[in-house]
Amino acid sequence: MMMLRAAASSHAGRRSNNEDAAIADAALGLYAVADGVGGVEGGEIASAIVVDTLRRFFRRAGADAGTDGGDASRLETAIRMADREIARRRVGDLDRMASTVAAVRVRGMAATVAWVGDSRVYLWRDGSLIQLTADHTVAAEMSARGLPMDAAGRASWGHVLSRAVGTGATSRPELLSLRLRTGDVLMLCTDGLTDVLDDEALARLLPAAIRDANPADRLVAAALEADADDNVTVVLVRVDDDGALFSSERTVPVRLPSRG
User: Fold this and answer.
1) E strands, 75-197, in order
2) Domain 3-240: which CATH class?
3) By the number of CB atoms within 10 A of the CB, which of 12, 28, 73, 78 ranks highest?
4) What is the maximal distance between C-alpha atoms in the chain?
5) Helix (H, G, I), strand (E, B) or coil at 137
């Protein structure tokens, strides 16, 4: 029988406030990270709204909802609900708050991925690391269109989001579906991880990390050792047929406590 195990970890980095949020709920088959937009008030509120809305939506829908192939529409609906709730609360000092989201719903061996912004989902399969999501940033979208951009431009526009939850028209999620295999590992993360650890570094770290009792903690620690100054959040989900997985399996609450 196919088994799922999840591990999650979050750290404020050098920041005084952790504006990331996450959920890893094996009973619902729901995993997500969200990163409140930095530089404006209410980032931690926006990210909490996103993961709380996802959790409440799928709890109401039922643990088995999605076996009919409708998870793409369900994830899109839940993210749009979060967008409306953030927009409703964008008043006063919170008038610019917004969040990214990267979410995965797993039912059986089918996984549906939805994302808005630059939080990412990776697949580790057969010794290779595959980025499943494409960043919704000005720099990434210019690059995708073949527009030239120098290093200064990439640095300037690399964190300017072209989509974010809470902004209405630019909150539309991108979606994809895939079939999982035994041994696959899905990694969801905020940009605090990928800002300091590129894909090559992550591919070197993952084989040892996923054998660790606390694999998400190990990746967060690697980001901190690489001098991460942003919040860092990681959720790992492994597929196995005998449950011999992470010993730190747990359901993660809406808010992950900052350590350090």
Assistant:
1) 101-107, 110-116, 120-125, 128-131, 174-179, 185-189
2) alpha beta
3) 78
4) 52
5) strand
